[in-house]
Amino acid sequence: MHTGIRPFGPRRFPARLAGTTGPAAGYIETVNEPLTPSRASRPLAHNRSAGVSGMTDKAEARSRKVTVPCQFCLSLNRVDLSRADERPKCGECGKPILLDRPVRVNDDDFRRVIEGADVPVVVDFHADWCGPCKIMAPLLDDFAYAHKGEVLVAKLDTDRSPQTPQQFGIRGIPTLIIFKNGQEAGRRTGVVSGEELEALLASA
Ligand SMILES: [Zn+2]
């Protein structure tokens, strides 16, 4: 019935997570619907402090540009991760875009974030009710901080944004997917350790 759900955290949290592999803990019903294209049609906010978009593909390949939603107004901004410490500001609302921590993404902006990143993107598919996801949260914060400037860490709430998990066939959470050049390059389901997170990045 729930084949495909792998046990959570086999090494670090066996007792606590022993009962969490059932449907109530991590199962997302898969509904066979045609994949809908991203509804993200919001234009990129012009971001003077973080450079402009429209560079050639070659230049993009050398840069560390990412497309990220402002966590305050949700406008998409094109920013340079190598300038993360300069705290670029949202071109729309002027609030800081913090790139040393996970950014929240949703069904509307997911595609543009994944496809607009020159660096690997690690996406944490999670939900508020998911205990193992809560265990993962500080670990992802640390990972994002340790890799600021070279990796983008994103979090997607599978309750608020159910389309994207469906498209990627996610049946249990937490699930981590690492994307490179817009393509899935690795996946882990269940609680992973910091070492496993590094291994996921290294193997992608
Ligand atoms: Zn903003």
Characteristic key phrases:
204 residues; alpha/beta; 5-stranded mixed sheet; two-stranded antiparallel ribbon; 7 helices; 25% helix; globular; binds zinc ion
Write the SSE topology.
Elements: H1 14-17, H2 23-26, H3 57-62, E1 65-69, E2 76-80, E3 103-105, H4 110-115, E4 121-126, H5 131-146, E5 152-157, H6 163-167, E6 175-180, E7 183-189, H7 194-203
Parallel strand pairs: 3-5, 4-5
Antiparallel strand pairs: 1-2, 4-6, 6-7
| Helix-strand sequence | HHHEEEHEHEHEEH
- List the bound ligands: zinc ion
Tally the beta strands: 7
Biggest sheet overview: 5 strands, mixed
Low-confidence stretches: 1-41, 49-57
| C-alpha termini separation | 30 Å
Class derived from helix and strand content: alpha/beta
Give the CATH superfamily: Glutaredoxin
CATH level 3 topology:
Glutaredoxin
Gyration radius, to the nearest Å?
17 Å
Give the number of domains.
1
Order of the strands making up the biggest sheet: 3-5-4-6-7
Helix content: 25-40%
Instruction: Supply the CATH class.
Output: Alpha Beta
Mean pLDDT over all positions: 80
How much of the sequence lies in strands comes to 15-25%
Outline the structure in words:
The chain is an alpha/beta fold and 204 residues long. The protein has a single domain (42-203), classed as Glutaredoxin (3-Layer(aba) Sandwich), CATH 3.40.30. It has helices at residues 14-17, 23-26, 57-62, 110-115, 131-146, 163-167, 194-203; strands at residues 65-69, 76-80, 103-105, 121-126, 152-157, 175-180, 183-189. The strands form two sheets. It has a five-stranded mixed beta sheet with strand order 3-5-4-6-7. Strands 1-2 form a two-stranded antiparallel ribbon. A hairpin with a 6-residue loop joins strand 1 and strand 2 (76-80). The chain is globular and about 35 Å long. Mean pLDDT is 80; it is low at 1-41 and 49-57. Zinc ion binds next to loops.
